[in-house]
Amino acid sequence: MKSLPPAFVPDELVTDVLSRLALKPLMRFRCVRKSWNSLISDPTFVKLILHRSSQYDYFTLVSAIDFSVSSFTFYPFLKNFPISFTLPKEPYYQLNNAVGCCNGLLCMVGSSWLNGNIESWFCTWNPITRTMSPRFGSFYDDLTTRFNFTFGCDKSNNTYKVVTVTRTNVRVFSLLDNAWRDFQTPIGAHYFPMTKVVYMNGSVNWLAFHHHFGPTDKPSLIISLDLGTETHTQFRPPRGLDIGSFVTPNLSVLNGSLCFSHDFQQTHFLIWKMKEFGVEDSWPQFLKISYNNLKIDYPVNRFNVCLLPLCYSEKNDTLLLKYEEGSILYYGKDNTLEKISGPWLYTCTNYVESLVSYC
């Protein structure tokens, strides 16, 4: 009996099929043949995987098992199973926190002792490929600025940058140049950052308000730094806000749009979504939720409550909120909620699986 010739599968079809697989089994398929290994490692294929991953609603709460941060637990948004990853252990240093995430890369800040001082630095880690970059951006530790770091991608040349914001200056570390650059705070020392810096689509953004005791006509401002040009713009948050209310205002990114959240008359939690980025008159109201529905009482003689929107699913009309006592899943259709239990949350970040590595 005459044998049939081996079936011919076009390279385009192989690429399309492999790009639709879950990334964990895809990593194992690198061992099937050399051509598949080359394809999966190809930058064009990596970009295709990242593009497809970013189209799904995927958010993770990243929590540390202990203060040494030897492992992280990922809680996928609206999924029931956590995923844990263990970081490489080193006897001479510890990784303290994840300062941001972009394109599947977690940017970690670590520290070690050097001549009696604490030297800190960054590295990137991809939990899927299990690859960690060399250390970069060394600096002597200043705990007052630690939580004003963020991490993002300069899309003009596809490189990554770390940004830290203080009251007096902005520092940018470029992995391409392997150097820090210092910029004077664009609005002066009388303003200081009020919220954690957030990354969105090639820019980093933070809220600043005028430090003045008593009445002032100086408005709060949102500062936006373009990572490509390293120039800034500024615009106002929604008008008519009472900054002195008990809920701390926050910036966040929901469904690819910059959002501003704040208290409304001590009865509701309000979220505005910027329809056109940078345009002050494009702040339509997005969500308005009663504190009764969130089961949060107006506090008396307490410090401000920090309610931070993390993720919103339009399909399920579900909002994920973080606050000082944990996290809440709020279901808008029936005004119900579910409190998320689990390990103490050390940091929260957007995350999509990818094959991107910086090594």
Keywords:
26 strands, single chain, 359 residues, 5-stranded antiparallel sheet, mainly beta
Structural class: mainly beta
Low-confidence stretches: none
Task: Please summarize the sheet with the most strands.
Answer: 5 strands, antiparallel
**What percent of residues adopt helix (DSSP H or I)?**
10-25%
Number of helices: 5
Oligomer category = single chain
Sheet-strand content, in percent, reads 35-45%
How many distinct beta strands? 26
Tell me, briefly, the overall form: globular
Mean pLDDT: 77
- First-residue to last-residue Cα separation: 53 Å
Would you mind describing this structure in some detail?
The structure is a single chain. The chain has 359 residues and is mainly beta. The chain is 11% helix and 43% strand. The protein has five helices and 26 strands. The chain has helices spanning 11-19, 23-28, 34-41, 43-53, 291-294, and strands at residues 59-64, 71-76, 83-86, 94-102, 105-114, 117-126, 131-132, 136-140, 149-154, 159-165, 169-174, 179-184, 191-193, 198-200, 203-210, 221-226, 232-235, 250-254, 257-264, 268-273, 285-290, 308-313, 318-323, 326-331, 336-340, 347-350. Strands 4, 5, 6, 7 and 8 form a five-stranded antiparallel beta sheet that branches. Strands 13, 14, 15, 16 and 17 form a five-stranded antiparallel beta sheet that branches. It has a four-stranded antiparallel beta sheet with strand order 3-2-1-26, with no helix packed on it. A hairpin with a 2-residue loop joins β23 and β24. The radius of gyration is 22 Å and the shape is globular.
